């Protein structure tokens, strides 16, 4: 018996020794594994804390005009912009030892495991804020051991590399509060219509209770349950020393107004403009669709909400409801190219095709200012004379004859100045100039003005037969308005990533590519379409708009069978308007032909209302003199009409008008035909020979 007892004792000692050895080995392995995990976590470094967030679009005054969300509102606000009461309420109810543990609350884990064991079910959670935040960094929340292991590793990495404040900031910006609201900012705006920084204790304590069960404790779902949950949280805050009993009672009694609506307007502001912005983000910053939708970008655009509203209202008020006419409108600041308003069509929901930036249409006579700028560079002046009459141009390279026609086939039948030709939109004068300069000259000039669409070097190019985009023409005219500086349409001032870092800023450097003096002379010539002093064989093309003008404008209208244009500007604002049918049908109704001009003048007047009426300033290298607008010579006291006209210095006329030195009944001296022929400049003789 004694021998058997000894054997049992020895066997027990043997088992105990083996158990201790195995235990020690297990402890060593566990310790080594734990150290290895810590080393591995340290080597991996801080995990990226970026999570899907809504990209926000702002107008030039900081107003949110749109966002990307796909039904989810995700914003990120810094820790200092979160109500301290919400921070305290969240800690009190979710993780009261948050500042004391290193990612895991082992006491809570043991207690939760015991409770689950007793109930034989999952009845109590033990996740810390750090663990929940790690879980939120995963888009997939599948319940697998692999995910749980990765979550634990993320928790360790988060605690090792980020401060408690940073962890709280990330958690509060990613937790789900129901109704599509992710993060405290989206939740604060949805439930209480205010920023997370402005929440009261009562609001914060109610908001902190929602994440436990968004479909249960949301005040929109059940205010009673939300209120009960608020009481629990206030009690927890009191026990943890965050608030006093009096503060808890006061917050519990406070009447809360639940908004239950996301702050952004469902109606998209300037949808055509926003599409142009997104396209710019893709092309300029090379961002893909996922980054645009979920990257949490803050895109600060150039849109002016007031001017955008004016543009949309003007279009709606002027175009008949039953008309199929479409529109493209772009308004820009000529100093920097900032696009301030854009209308790409009459109804975005029916047609998102952006006629302001996508449609390529014939510009008609709005191309003439670019042509005449080229002429000014080649020595022409506002007083350069050419004959306006029906002319057929013949070519020696087997090209067909070309006969341009004026509107209604009306011609001066005599010589007119370039200033008057522009104001009356004389087509014969334009084609003569174009052919004299060479058909490639206008093609090259168009590129200089930022026009990227292909130009065909043909005689009719002077009359705008090659298609362009509305935004390109607005940009080209801006270069006249700013004195010749090269710009391009700017939709975005700057872009910030989800961390508030600026990742893009618009270039502010502007290179001068036009001769400032020639650009100014051209601008002053374009004021002529609104000046009755330039009336001749027909009225100036802007005569119907003069009575609506309260300031000086420069501009040019243009028409083709299927296109109607008006582009004009002041030193502060350039606006281009196109109207026509999408299918290219002819514009036949008289009312349809007036839309572009009327929309332009009404928009400009309303957009500039209250702003100073600035004049175009003459740069160095220009000379202003009074001329007789009929013959372009220096005006005398006897001239019935005078117009103050600018010239590039050295090209101004030196000959005085002699047409009014004699009384009507007296016969004016006449020179012989031969003398007149000899006085003609060489390029006029060339035109006479060509025609």
TrEMBL record:
**Transmembrane feature ranges:** 20-41
User: Where mainly located?
Assistant: membrane
Residue intervals of the Glycosyl transferase family domain: 62-238
Q: Where is the Penicillin-binding protein transpeptidase domain?
A: 329-579
The EC number(s) attached to this protein equal 2.4.-.-
InterPro entries listed in its UniProt record? Beta-lactam/transpept-like, Glyco_trans_51, Glycosyltr_51/Transpeptidase, Lysozyme-like_dom_sf, PBP_transglycosylase, PCN-bd_Tpept
UniProt keywords (A-Z) are: Carboxypeptidase, Cell membrane, Cell shape, Cell wall biogenesis/degradation, Glycosyltransferase, Hydrolase, Membrane, Multifunctional enzyme, Peptidoglycan synthesis, Protease, Transferase, Transmembrane, Transmembrane helix
The name on file for this protein is: Transglycosylase domain-containing protein
Q: What organism does the record attribute this protein to?
A: Cytobacillus spartinae
